[in-house]
Design a protein that fits this description.
globular; alpha+beta; six-stranded antiparallel β-sheet; 2 helices
């Protein structure tokens, strides 16, 4: 099982905006050529397919598509590849947020 991380502003005391909004994410990720918005994330297994509705910003990293999900004002990502760590830190820095496990 992979670790899950959260990009959040909830730990910042003096932040004007404690949550990360969909509009903010849409604008931010639109400026990144390797990201694409998707309202559904689909996982295909050997015997079944599961689709989850939400606000997903899909990161294209080589052959992989890695979902960054906006949920209740935070962005969640699973550590499925070592390349996720620097990308996650870049996004948190750009959005003036912190990275926490969970």
């Amino acid at each position: 099982m992979s670790q899950r991380f959260r990009i959040t502003r909830s730990m910042q005391e003096n932040s004007e905006q404690q949550t990360i909004s969909l509009d903010e994410c849409t604008q931010y990720f639109a400026s990144k050529p390797d990201f694409m918005y998707s309202p559904i994330f689909t996982v295909k297994g050997p015997e079944s397919t599961m689709s989850v509705e939400g606000d997903f910003f899909m990161w294209q990293h080589g052959e992989l598509e890695i979902p960054f999900r906006l949920y209740m004002g935070d962005i969640y990502v699973a550590l499925t590849n070592e390349a996720v760590v620097p990308k996650m830190i870049e996004i948190a820095t750009d959005l003036h947020a912190d990275v926490v496990e969970g």
